[in-house]
Every structure is written in structure tokens, then in C-alpha cells.
Amino acid sequence: MAEDMTFLPRAQLCTLEELVHISQSFVALGIRKIRITGGEPLIRKNIQSLFQALGEIEDLEELAITTNGAHLIEHAQSLQAAGVKRINVSLDSLDSAQFTQLTRTGNLDNVLSGIDHVNKLGFAKIKLNAVVLKNRNVDQVIPLVRFAIDNGLDLSFIEEMPLGNISEHNRSEEFISSEALRELIQSQLSLLPSSESTGGPSRYWQVPHSNTKIGFISPHSENFCDACNRVRVSAEGKLLLCLGNEHAVDLKQIIRANPGQPEQVQQAIIKAMEIKPERHYFDNDDVQIVRFMNTTGG
């Protein structure tokens, strides 16, 4: 599932201060939730100053993070102090050898210790995210569900998105739908449809007699574009209006060309919404989006 990592030159990245300014512009326009994602956001130098600054933005109601969990223990308390309420942890396997193979460098014990640590600190919500491939880690679906139940966590299964050209597996052969995963889970555990929504693409099912909800994010089989209200800003400052399209606006260029003029960034954001695509069209055999998820960020 992993692909070779290439880090961008620092000059191509937004500074942390620029990311704060962009965030302030979004909040001024009515955005109330910001999630920092990656790649892995916690490896960026001085990342805590970004969370602290975002947590101080007036009218921002929710600050969240998606992480691979490897650095949670060292950052958890400062994240909580900055106002982070929700943590999503990417976790595709509970088998140590398989986990290392899938992530190439990951240490499962380290990630599980991080999850346990933030769980004990009492964040408002901790959710696991898992991408399942038919011939790689489908054997981990039930163990992941039971782990979530035992630890009072939510869990979302995400259909693999065809972003970036890869050589390590055939996407068509590895694809497994959300429906197939639900049937697999329901062969051993009860699931009840839930009306709960976090405002995102997950469609949730409740595990009876537990606090755990199982979500399914289905960009292929159950297109959710009609309800999507999300946009992403990459580490380069590109405003990406859809993961499945290349529509983008360079906010970094605008902010650097117009220092001290947040209204210019706000106007660019408003205008960008006019070209937000109606939907995406994913095809496992035809990669139309060459960027990987870890270069998209959020």
C-alpha cells in the first residue's frame, strides 16, 4: 500500500505561518472544522506551533488530526492542550509482520501504545481508519473490528482510491467494496444502520451493546459526492476541491503576492468554490490523478 516517499524542497512548502493565515481565511468565511492530515503531519518541524495557533482561532469549533500513530505518545498531551478534540489513526493491520510489510517501516507496538495513550487521555473521539485490499489484509477486518470494540473506538474502512501510479499491486484485483466488507463483518457480528454523521463521507453502522460505530467510505461503490462539503489544502498551499479531480487554486502564490491582505485569499477561496466538481469518476484500471494521498495532505 505504501509508495516511495519523496520530500518536497522546503521552498515549495507553505510556512506554518502561511498555513495559519490560510486557516484564518477559511474560518472567516464560515468554516468551523479543520483537520490536519498527511502524509504524517507530526514529523514536520515545530508542528506543535501550528496546532497551538489554530487552536487560538476564534470561531473555530473543532480541531482534529489524522496520523499514522507513530508519534502520538510524544505529542498527545500538547495536541490536547492546543485544543485537538478528535484523532484519527491509520491502522491497516494488527499483525506485526504484516503491518511492517504494508507500511515498510512501521512498528505496530509503537502505534498501539500511542492509541492506548491518547485513549487514556480522554480525547472526545478516537477513530481508526483502515484501507483493505482483498489479497493483502482482508484477514484483518474482524480483528480490527474486535479491537475497536474492546477499546471503545470507532473504525472506518476506506475503499482504496486510485491516486498515483503504483507497481506493487493490481488495483482491480485487490479492490474490495464496502458492501463486501459489511457482509464479512455481519457474518460474525451484528451491525445496525446508524443515522449518525460527522459531516464527512463515512456512512456508519452501530455495533449493538457497544460504543463502537463502523464506518464505510466508498468513493468507488457508493459515490458520496452529492453530500461532500470538504476541500483540502496541500502542504504546498494548493486548494484541492476534490480528491478525484485536479481542480486546484494556488493559495500560497496569492498569499505571497498579497502580504497582509487576507481578503485576497478569501476572494480566491470563494471563487474556487464555483469550480468545485460535481463528482469524481474513479477507475482502478485508468489512473487519472497522478498525485498520491501523502502529497495531498489536508
From TrEMBL:
Keywords for the protein's UniProt record, in alphabetical order: GTP-binding, Iron, Iron-sulfur, Lyase, Metal-binding, Molybdenum cofactor biosynthesis, Nucleotide-binding, S-adenosyl-L-methionine
Cofactor(s) needed: [4Fe-4S] cluster
Radical SAM core domain location: 1-194
Record-linked InterPro entries: Aldolase_TIM (IPR013785), MoaA (IPR013483), MoaA_twitch (IPR010505), MoCo_biosynth_MoaA/MoaC (IPR050105), rSAM (IPR007197), rSAM_sf (IPR058240)
PANTHER family tied to this protein: MOLYBDENUM COFACTOR BIOSYNTHESIS PROTEIN 1, MOLYBDOPTERIN COFACTOR SYNTHESIS PROTEIN A
Protein name as catalogued: GTP 3',8-cyclase MoaA
